[in-house]
Specification:
heterodimer, A: 338 residues, alpha+beta, Butyryl-CoA Dehydrogenase, subunit A, domain 3, 11 helices, B: 375 residues, Butyryl-Coa Dehydrogenase, subunit A, domain 1, Butyryl-CoA Dehydrogenase, subunit A, domain 2, 3 domains, four-stranded mixed sheet, 14% strand, AcylCo_DH-like_C (chain A), FAD (chain A)
Chain lengths: 338, 375
């Protein structure tokens, strides 16, 4: 049911060609998501989330598959979950209604939530239509969620991903501007948040990969060279099969991580999420490159949709840590029991 | 899908753990003599069976316990965790018998297969029929109430230790190649059956070739209808690729722990590259395990295994072979100088994983067909 609703919204709100990104009605897509309750999944209802990690992953995958250019991950998942964990329920509810949007601030290499004050410029990620973004600041015994206004001190940058807005701060974000939101977070809260965030990004990647592979396979059944469909060549079949295997393998890892978000202890949920993120990050580049290769010359052009998949997958790979980052953290758990 | 044990499954897991802790033969993995290792594996099969752990998902009337295949997966997992000897792979041949046999054949063949009294091999491939299995040339000519079999089989794993064989032979030379094949249940002790071990690159006699010279098989040992052999073969290989029927996940986890121990012993755990490589191996194993669990859950819901088993087979081969590459990188010269000869042997044992049960290329062909790509 949820899957069908998400897929339906994604189907009408995603680009068929890069040119569509200029004309798509993003506000209408956001309203549909709000009206269907999909922005409210991580608001709390009597203490527990209204929707499970599995439901978040289903929506994220559908929107990734559709390359939908709305800040579902940034606002409805990453920011909303931070607010809810901090007990800022009114703020989370406001985001769920769709009237306002909030993104997240990431550090200079996009690999973690920014901790303020820092000594480097930070990025506002997935901030389309957002007037503020969330980050952390250290307090005694943990971290405090803070809100930073994006109205001044940030400039839009032409990020790789054509479907998500990216801003860079003019310089380090000082202590003056951030406003504390809610109560301080424990280490456990942050593990929970990271488990959900990594899983949702990985689910988006799975959507991007599966849809890209499906596009390439469909094209192989239309494109004729040497008088035959290119999909009849074993070389092309094996490229598609390999890409398919990696996308499906990633989906298996994400399904488990999504279940683990609410069902397992934070440390176990985080290990499952890192496993899923590491898997997706390890294969997403090659899978989307394979898809561009199947499309041949046309797949290398700006007008074609193939690179939009690649760009979104590459950015997903980097955000909150690529496979190298995840693997080192997994090794800490496996090899030293940290 | 729920990845957690039900209360019944959790109880089963706990009692299994307790049982395994006491039942696992000490030092079983230090046995060098091959025949002794085979004896131990057969004995372990019977021990598991007596405790009720073999064929748990089979109907009680054929010697099973009628449980969900999830219990097989739990067994797999716990045996891996506790470093038990390899699990018997009764599933893939048994399933074919179970699916196609007459009631009488089921009662005759399935209980000893499950209990370990009779061990089985698979007579499919031939010198000229590997990936192109349907072009097999071994013939079975009807002669009164017997078939007379002539030909040669290759890559018959464990043929030298098997009591029975699931044999494919051509019964109708005039039919199209997929249609003229029938399947038989044959004793390996029949006159005219000659088995010669094939030593693979590792130096071990893992498999064999079997010669069939005027071997007489009673008609009532044909499995399925005449000409149904291809369908039976496909059922068998689908289950051979299947997740819970073969102990590969348990094996993989055990080997990974050994590789981690090598890195620790050699003081390599400070190197980020080594840490990443070990974590990547863990991720590969997890992805494989989770993919298999999803398939298992589909199977529990009543769906027979389909072409998606090819996904697991490719993931398995890749994981297994990558892990052996990692071990080789960590061991360095030791694997070349005989210091770590057992790892060189494991390396070569990992190579045929992408060949047997349908090569990696065949698996990709199957996936392309599943994606409905043009022929």
């Amino acid at each position: 049911m949820l899957k069908e609703v998400a897929a339906q919204i994604a189907g009408s709100a995603g680009p068929a060609n890069p040119g569509d990104l200029r004309t798509l009605d993003r506000a209408a897509a956001w309203r549909s998501l709000a009206q269907s309750g999909l922005l409210a999944l991580r608001t709390r209802d009597g203490g527990s989330p209204a929707g499970s990690g599995v439901e978040v992953a289903v929506v994220a995958e559908a929107l990734g598959a559709g390359l939908v250019p709305v800040p579902y991950l940034g606002s409805a998942v990453l920011a909303t979950e931070l607010l809810a964990l901090a007990g800022a329920h009114d703020e989370a509810e406001a985001l769920a209604e769709g009237g306002s949007r909030t993104g997240v601030l990431l550090d200079g290499d996009l690999s973690a939530l920014a901790v303020l004050p820092g000594d480097q410029a930070v990025y506002g990620w997935d901030v389309d239509g957002a007037d503020g973004a969330l980050a952390l600041t250290g307090v005694r015994g943990g971290y405090q969620v803070v809100r930073v206004s994006l109205e001044t001190g940030f400039v839009p940058v032409p990020g790789a991903d054509l479907t998500r807005a990216l801003l860079r701060s003019d310089g380090p974000v000082g202590e003056a501007s951030p406003t504390p939101v809610g109560s301080p977070l424990s280490a456990e809260d942050l593990s929970r948040w990271e488990a959900l965030a990594l899983t949702a990004i990985a689910a988006d990647t799975v959507g991007v990969m599966r849809a890209a592979v499906a596009r390439a396979v469909a094209y192989s059944k239309e494109r004729v060279q040497y008088g035959v469909l290119i999909g009849s060549f074993q070389a092309v079949q094996h490229m598609c099969a390999e890409a398919y295997v990696q996308a499906e393998a990633s989906a298996s890892a994400v399904n488990y991580a999504a279940w683990a978000v609410d069902e397992l202890e934070p440390a176990e949920a985080l290990l499952a999420a890192r496993t899923a993120k590491a898997q997706c990050a390890s294969v997403a580049r090659e899978v989307t490159e394979t898809v561009m290769q199947v499309f041949g010359g046309i797949g290398q052009t700006y007008e074609h949709i193939a690179h939009v998949h690649t760009r979104r997958a590459l950015t997903d790979r980097q955000v909150l840590g690529d496979e190298g980052v995840q693997l080192l953290r997994i090794a800490d758990v496996r090899l030293t029991g940290e | 899908m729920d990845y957690r044990d039900t209360p019944e499954e959790a109880e089963f897991r706990a009692s299994l753990r307790e049982w395994l802790a006491a039942a696992i033969p000490a030092g079983w993995d230090k046995i060098d003599d091959e025949e002794a290792a085979v004896r131990l594996r057969k004995e372990w099969h019977r021990t598991l069976y007596r405790a009720g752990y073999v064929g748990m998902s089979w109907p009680e009337e054929y010697g099973g316990r009628g449980l969900s295949p999830v219990y097989d997966a739990i067994l797999n997992e716990e045996c891996g965790n506790l470093n038990a000897p390899p699990l018997p792979s009764v599933g893939y041949i048994g399933r074919a018998v179970f699916t196609y046999a007459t009631e009488e054949q089921k009662r005759r063949f399935l209980p000893p297969l499950l209990s370990g009294e009779a061990s089985w091999c698979q007579g499919f491939s031939e010198p000229e029929a590997g990936s192109d299995l349907a072009s097999l040339r071994t013939t079975a000519r009807l002669d009164g109430d017997h078939y007379v079999v002539n030909g040669q089989k290759m890559w018959t794993s464990g043929g030298q230790y098997a009591d029975w064989c699931l044999l494919l032979a051509r019964t109708d030379p005039d039919a199209p190649k997929h249609k003229g094949i029938s399947a038989f249940l044959v004793s390996m002790t029949e006159p005219g059956v000659t088995c010669r071990p094939i030593v693979i690159a590792s130096g071990e006699a893992e498999t064999s070739e079997v010669f069939w010279d005027d071997v007489r098989i009673p008609v009532d040992q044909r499995l399925g209808a005449p000409g149904e052999g291809w369908r039976i073969a496909m059922t068998t290989v689908t289950y051979e690729r299947g997740p819970a029927d073969i102990g590969f996940i348990a094996n993989y986890r055990r080997t990974l722990r050994k590789v981690e121990a090598i890195a620790a012993e050699r003081g390599l755990l400070d190197r980020p590259e080594t840490r990443k490589a070990l974590a990547r191996a863990y991720v590969r194993g997890e992805v494989l395990r989770l993919n298999c669990m999803e398939q298992l859950s589909l199977r529990v819901s009543g769906r027979p295994p389909g072409p998606e088993g090819s996904v697991a087979k490719l993931l398995w081969a890749d994981a297994e072979q990558s892990l052996q590459h990692l071990a080789m990188d960590l061991l360095g010269a030791d694997e070349m100088t005989g210091v770590a000869a057992d790892w060189l042997s494991s390396y070569f044992t990992s190579r045929p994983v992408s060949v047997y049960g349908g090569s990696a290329q065949i698996q990709k062909n199957i996936i392309a067909r599943m994606l409905d790509m043009p022929r």
